[in-house]
Amino acid sequence: MRCQRFMTQWNFFVPTFPSGKQACFYLSHSKILTSKMSTNENANTPSARLNRFKNKGKDSTEMRRRRIEVNVELRKAKKDDQMLKRRNVSTLPDDATSPLQENRGNQVLAHWSVEEIVKGVNSNNMELQLQATQAARKLLSREKQPPIDNIIRAGLIPKFVSFLGKTDCSPIQFESAWALTNIASGTSEQTKAVVDGGAIPAFISLLASPHTHISEQAVWALGNIAGDGSAYRDLVIKYGAIEPLLSLLAVPDLSSLASGYLRNVTWTLSNLCRNKNPAPPIEAIQQILPTLVRLLHHDDPEVLADTCWAISYLTDGSNDRIEVVVKTGLVPQLVRLLGCSELPIMTPSLRAIGNIVTGTDEQTQIVIDSGALAVFPSLLSHHKNNIQKEAAWTMSNITAGRQDQIQRVIDHGLVPYLIGVLRKGDFKSQKEAVWAVTNYTSGGTIDQIVYLVQAGVLEPLLNLLSTKDSKTVLVILDAVSNIFMAAEKINETEKLCLMIEECGGLDRIEALQSHENEQVYRASSTIIEKYFSAEEEEDQNVVPDSTADSYTFQIQDSTPNSFNF
User: How far, in Å, CA of 277 to CA of 280, rounded?
Assistant: First the structure.
């Protein structure tokens, strides 16, 4: 693209990421764990994407557009409803819950004060310690305003961490693990209190617990800690969590594992893959990837969704990191999942595919060769705006590729779908489609640009010049300039001018000469001066005849006023 001076300032959509943390909630009269995500993050917080441009005879780093994170607390992001529903209940096995009877001789009070809990936890009576810890867990499992800070200020975290090591009393291990998990699901400061209390190595040790429900609770807690951000994610990795986590899945048949258990381990692995600045250590990624490839072939929708999210995190980076993922051979399976009808799987698989095509032309070609383009008609016309937007963004990086890759876009009939997004998509989707068209015009052959105009791109593209987003206007003007340059090469400039005037584009370009943005003013003035300055002197009713050898650019309708180009 020629507009590199402003591309690096382009603001894009907020990524929809899974929540990095979960809290366990207690339901009375049953032995059930319920998870609920924190929803403190403002979902409308702007996020930015660094725009790069793919190779069209230029250095490939100039031509690509990637997302960057801007200190958004993604751990608080509310994931799609899929995450809330999936983790809504997790029933413990009967033999595991038997020591956790809520009414053990009616000795457990319905409501303990924090002061009573402190007294019980600090007693020398194991039974009283267990009751107090269970009471704390219940307080921390309240859906509304759990007293996390009060528990922290009471100095209970070190005691709970010490209880994690009581192998002779599995119920207190479980209750303290549950309580600490919910504390770690809170703010960064609350998570820090758990980490500072020495919980990470204690939880890693519990991964090998002979009691499945305790092991699973440790998995959950480590997932919440890792989901806090890059620093704690790397600390969990540094303490050696990956190997024991992966060993939990080292069974011949993953279907032999309880579905809730497998989902929790997969979710925690995904949190070990997420967050940037810095990205996870490359050694850790290489250690986790074979298991992710295996999980990608599982049949559980929720396992597939979190696995796709993990892959989307790992591909959101430099070309060498994308290559580490691509060389595992997982792209064809990712494309198959892209074509599924389930939105919770489609969304992260599309994000992952979109990230991969920000890489090299060779990495993009692997996506194309895996059949991804066949799925895009449905994605570009999807009823969910976010899917349309991400699909158009993905297309923008494919059309920023080689001319043979642009041709594959044409051959799969995707140009009319992109034009459809320009016409009817929501504005965020339209912006991405504008990029797709402009990249296409920047690197396409004359024949390919002729086809684009014949397909009817001019009117919906030029209509968007009325937007107040000056960056989008500049990208559109760049596309118009590219189309004019193609017209000049085949001596069809006059016909293109007539087509632009016919669809009202000239009026819109002229209006931009009084635009408050100087770059918009200059770009529009350049087009007017170069191609339209002598128009008043011409008889607009005289249209040059097309010869058999000329390229024909024509407006889609067949009205008598149509122009041939």
Answer: 9
